[in-house]
C-alpha cells in the first residue's frame, strides 16, 4: 500500500509558488517543485497531472463550498444574490492567501495555457452553481443564465480584487461587481 505524504498538496503548492516567484512559471519544472517540497516527483504525480494543476486544485473545494452555501440559502432570496453571498464564503481564503492568489492571477494573465485552464474551471463553477440553483427549485433555463452571470461576476470581482492597491476584501469586490451589473440592467431597462 502506498503511504500518502502528509499535506502533500499544500507542500507542492507552496513549493511551486515559491519557485514561480523566484524563477518564473515557464522556467519551473516538476522535479524542481518536488525537490523544493521535499517530496518525490512520483509523489507529485499522485496528486497532480502537471504543474498547471498545482494552481487550480483548490477550485474544486471552492466549488463545493459555493454550492453548499447556495443549498443553505434562505427561500425568497434572488438567485443572483444567493450566488454572490456564496462567493463571499470563500473570501476568507482569498484574502488570507493574498500574495499567492495575486501571483496566481498574474501568471494566468500572462500564460495562454493557464488562461485556458482558468476558463475550464470557470465553466465548471458555472455548472456547479447551475445545479445548486436547480436544487433550490430555480427552473433550469433561468438557473443556467444566473450561473453564467455569476461566473462572470466572480471573474470581474477577482480581477478587481487583484488590481486593488487598497486591499479591500474580496467580498466587497463581489458586492461591487453585483451592484454594477444590477445598475447596468436598470440603465438598459430605463
**Alpha-beta content class:** mainly alpha
**What number is the mean pLDDT?**
94
**Number of strand segments:** 0
| CATH class term of the largest domain | Mainly Alpha
Radius of gyration: 18 Å
Strand content: under 5%
CATH superfamily of the largest domain: Tetracycline Repressor, domain 2
Q: Specify the oligomeric state.
A: single chain
CATH topology of the largest domain: Tetracycline Repressor, domain 2
Number of domains: 2
Name the helix and strand elements from N-terminus to C-terminus, one letter apiece.
HHHHHHHHHH
Low-confidence segments: none
How much helicity do the residues have? over 70%
Q: Which architecture of the largest domain per CATH?
A: Orthogonal Bundle
The count of helical stretches stands at 10
Terminal Cα separation, in Å? Answer: 66 Å
Molecular shape: globular
Describe the main β-sheet briefly.
none
Amino acid at each position: 500500500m502506498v503511504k500518502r505524504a502528509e499535506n502533500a498538496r499544500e507542500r507542492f503548492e507552496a513549493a511551486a509558488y515559491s519557485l514561480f516567484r523566484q524563477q518564473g512559471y515557464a522556467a519551473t519544472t516538476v522535479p524542481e517543485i518536488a525537490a523544493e517540497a521535499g517530496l518525490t516527483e512520483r509523489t507529485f504525480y499522485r496528486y497532480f497531472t502537471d504543474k498547471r494543476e498545482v494552481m487550480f486544485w483548490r477550485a474544486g473545494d471552492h466549488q463545493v463550498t459555493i454550492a453548499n452555501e447556495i443549498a443553505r440559502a434562505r427561500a425568497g432570496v434572488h438567485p443572483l444574490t444567493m450566488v454572490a453571498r456564496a462567493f463571499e464564503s470563500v473570501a476568507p481564503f482569498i484574502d488570507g492567501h493574498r500574495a499567492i492568489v495575486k501571483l496566481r492571477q498574474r501568471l494566468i494573465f500572462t500564460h495562454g495555457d493557464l488562461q485556458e485552464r482558468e476558463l475550464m474551471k470557470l465553466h465548471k463553477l458555472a455548472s456547479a452553481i447551475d445545479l445548486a440553483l436547480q436544487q433550490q427549485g430555480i427552473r433550469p433555463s433561468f438557473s443556467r443564465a444566473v450561473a453564467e452571470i455569476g461566473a462572470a461576476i466572480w471573474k470581474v470581482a477577482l480581477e478587481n480584487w487583484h488590481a486593488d492597491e487598497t486591499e479591500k476584501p474580496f467580498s466587497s469586490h463581489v458586492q461591487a461587481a453585483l451592484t454594477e451589473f444590477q445598475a447596468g440592467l436598470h440603465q438598459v431597462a430605463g
